[in-house]
Structure formats: structure tokens, C-alpha cells
Amino acid sequence: MLENIRLSFQGIWGHKMRSVLTMLGIIIGIGSIIAIVSTIKGTNEQIKQNLVGAGNNAVKIQLYQGDVPIDFAFQSAPAGVPEISKTVLEEITDLEEVETASLYHMRNEYDAVYRNAVSLGSGNIIGVDENYLDVYGYQIVKGRGISKSDYENKNKVALIDKTTALNLFSDQDPIGKTIEIKGEPFTVVGVVGKKAEFQPVINSLDDYYRYMNSNSSGMICIPDPVWPMIYNFDEPKNLVVRATSTDDMTAAGEKAAEILNGYLYVKDTSIEYRGEDLMEQAKQLQELSNSTNQQLIWIASISLLVGGIGVMNIMLVSVTERTREIGLKKALGARKRKILAQFLTEAAVLTLLGGIIGIGAGIALAYGISGLSSVPVAISVPISLIAVLFSVVIGIVFGFIPSLKAANMNPIDALRYE
């Protein structure tokens, strides 16, 4: 085998230009596939990152009726939907896929938050427990958080985000100042921000509406015991869990929802808890992207077929050129399988080199496309290895007929060939 490989490199080096031209089809085919797969993988990773955000792996579990989340701003809780108790919350946090969890109330309000005559046009008012900020990856950037005594004494204090602070206070320091929520005064004790700031990559208007609309509102957090002071009635809380990893988000949401549904006693079977499955949304967008790009892979594969035909052609030429050499080897006792192995090895080495060069060309092409069009790139090592093996297979398949022709030569006729 080693001798055959040595002879193969010797033959390739002896006909450098011919060998490069023969490998060109393999190089173009492998390079095109690597470039396409790299951009597909990069795009898919970007889609997932855009939806998941900064990586806090938070999954919301909400009460649904049919396919629509129940909005307690417009309807009361259906009969048979109990409050989520601490015992149930502990059962959820004990799940293998769940790192921590939080219960909260939320309203999306318009012109419900004021500071003097200045109104917050749109904002999420959230009644939070002690774990909410941690689950969503928030930290206090100014002032303090909601303390234990605030919860125990039902103090009307509030945390606001940077959007709310900018809209209501402009350049002023909001700490210690008063805002009104639904007519009730609250003292701002802190400003919160994400631990890891993240902005999704926007490549189109559709991307803007898909990824940015949810981030345009302000946020005001108040202690959940104070919630009834604003809305004057009890209602089931929403649940958010933080999964142990991004890949566990779907499982964490499904299992948490399953536990909550086990405590429902509702007549309407369409009422149930569901997890917000961002990973499923990402998967659907990825499949849409893949269906288009897979067609490009098939088109690029045509050049591999052309490259294989080129290998077959050049190997037939090589066999013809070396007819007397083949006759001499057979006259000295070389068996068919020895001749067959020699020429198959030469074809495989030729396409192997083309495959390796093609991978390098594909990676360079992928980064070139990324630089020109801002398409993300993610190189797949397994796909690269498969591409190398596939190029070897092409050499063996298309080199088999020329190799078989060489192996079946009559030694007498081969020695007399001129």
C-alpha cells in the first residue's frame, strides 16, 4: 500500500499541470459544498442566537386557551386554575433540565406609568418574586434591588430598566424619585440591565419585526405582594424557568408545563399551560433556510460528477501511456489485484488531494462571502472530514474502470504495444 501511494505521488508530480486540471472539478465541487454548508450552519446558529438572546436560557410558561395565551387584562382566570404554590414551584425546580424558576404577574400597559406629566407610552409592568431578575439575567446597574423587607412590608417600590429611565427621567438620576403606576405612587429604588447585553443581527425588515419588537417597551418591576394594590384582584401567576443549557430549553418548558397541567381542574380541555418554545421557532426558521440551501448543495454536487468523469478520463490516458509498464509487471508475476490496487490508489490519492485543497478553498470562499454580505459562517469539522472521505470514494468509483482495464491487460499484447 505504501509503495502504491509513493508511486501515485510520483505519477502526480510527474504530470503536475494535468493533475491540477483533473483535480479542478473535485476542488470546485468540494469547495462549493463546504462554503454552502458553512453559511447554512452559521445562519442557523445566528437564528438560534437571535431568538434565545444573550444566553440566559429563560423559558416562559403561560396559560393558554386553544392557541392563544390567556390575557388577564381582559378576562379573569377560568374556574379550576389554582395558584402555583411553593410546593409546585419546588417540584419544577427539581427537574434535571431546570436551573431555577420564578413566578410573576405581568401586564403590557399603554400610558399607565407617569412621572409628573411625562407618560411611558408602552411598558411591561411586572410583579416579581426574589428570583425573577436572576432567571432573566438582569442585574442592578444603579441603586438597589427589591429587599426582603420590601416584600414583607408590601413597600411600594419599583425597579425600572434603561428604556423606562430614559423616557421618564431623560438625563436625570431616577433613584429615590416617584412614579405613578395606575395612579399609585411608587419610589424608584434601582435601575436594571442585562448582565450580557445582546442585540440580534438584523439583515432584513422581517428580521427587525421578528426580533426587535419585543424589546421596544420599557419595564417596571414591583414586588408581587403589591400587585393587588394596582389591579385589585388575585390571578394565577406566570412561570418562567431557566434551563441548564440552550439545548434543554424545549424539554424544560415541556416538563414544567406538564407539572402545572397536572394541577388543573378545568372543564374546557383547550385550557392548558404551555412553554414558549423558542428552540422550536428557531428550528422552523432553520428548516426554511435549509430547504433553499440544500438545492444549492445538489447543484454544487454536479461539479463533483464532472470531476469524477475527469478522473476517469485521465486515468484511462494514464493506463494507455503505461501499457508497456503494465505488461512488464505482469510478465514478472504481478497479479491482477496488484495492478488494480496500484491504479485505484493513484485515483484515490488524486481526488484526496483535490478534496483537501477544496476544503481550504471552501473555507476561504465562505469567509469571503461573509465579508461581502455579512452572512455568518460556522465551519463544520465533521462535514469537512466527510467531504475528504467522499472525494476518496469518487476516486475509487470513477477510477475503477480504468484500473480494471489495466488489471485485465494481456501481458504479451501490452509488451508489444507501441
In what order do the strands lie side by side in the largest sheet? 3-4-9-6-8-7
Structural class: alpha+beta
User: Radius of gyration over alpha carbons?
Assistant: 33 Å
Distance between the termini: 29 Å
In percent, how much strand structure appears in the residues? 15-25%
Helix content: 40-55%
Poorly predicted regions are: 208-214
The total strand number stands at 11
User: How many domains in all?
Assistant: 2
**Overall 3D geometry?**
elongated
Major beta sheet summary: 6 strands, mixed, barrel
The helix tally amounts to 14
Mean pLDDT: 80
**Run of helices and strands:** HHEEHEEHEHEHEEHEHEHEHHHHH
Give the secondary structure arrangement, pairings included.
Blueprint (H helix, E strand, L loop, with lengths): L1 H13 L1 H37 L5 E8 L2 E2 L16 H8 L4 E18 L2 E11 L3 H5 L1 E6 L4 H6 L3 E5 H8 L8 E4 L2 E11 L10 H7 L6 E6 L3 H5 L6 E6 L5 H13 L9 E5 L2 H44 L1 H9 L4 H38 L7 H27 L3 H5 L3
